Amino acid sequence: MVKLEKRKMYGDAKTGIKAILHSFSADMRANRKRFLEHMEEYNSMNRREGFRIKPEHIYPILTDWSKEAGGAGAYFFQDLWAAKKIFQNRPQRHFDIGSRLDGFILSLLSFMEVTMIDIRPLTQQIELIWRA
Question: Residue 5's pLDDT is what?
Fold first, then answer.
């Protein structure tokens, strides 16, 4: 019974988790090699001891080479347009209802305080944000 459940979970070598882990491992090995080559190159060019990369101080994220740097989500251009308008008009205060902290409000915080009105909780205390 246990063997059947294991077989279902892991699948065969072509379709199961083992196949995914195998391909992931190959990518990880390649990314690890690439990271170590970059680290060696940096250390060979670096002339200042205080700026050397030491193995005990690194925590490489080896999957970053295959990920996108981000994208323009659904509200990206709208948020950018509105933030420019607010910046041009320079109001004394901005009361924001329902915008996302990591989108539009973040753009505004670069040049002004924001009073944030939202039914969603904000668990972090962030300078320049006031809760109404």
Answer: 44
Region of residue 90 (left: phi > 0; alpha: psi -120 to 50; beta: else): left
End-to-end CA, the chain: 58
For residue 95, the SS3 value is: strand
Q: Which amino acid is at 5?
A: E
Sequence-ordered list of residues with C-beta below 8 angstroms from that of 37, at least 6 positions apart, any chain: none
Three-state DSSP class for residue 93: coil
Q: Is the pTM of this model over 0.70?
A: no
Residue 104 · residue 110 · CB < 8 Å: no
Full strand arrangement of the beta sheet holding 95-97: 95-97, 114-117, 129-131
Bridge partners, 116 (sequence order): 96, 131
Chain centre distance of CA 120: 22
Tell me how far apart the alpha carbons of residues 114 and 92 are, in angstroms, rounded to a whole number: 10
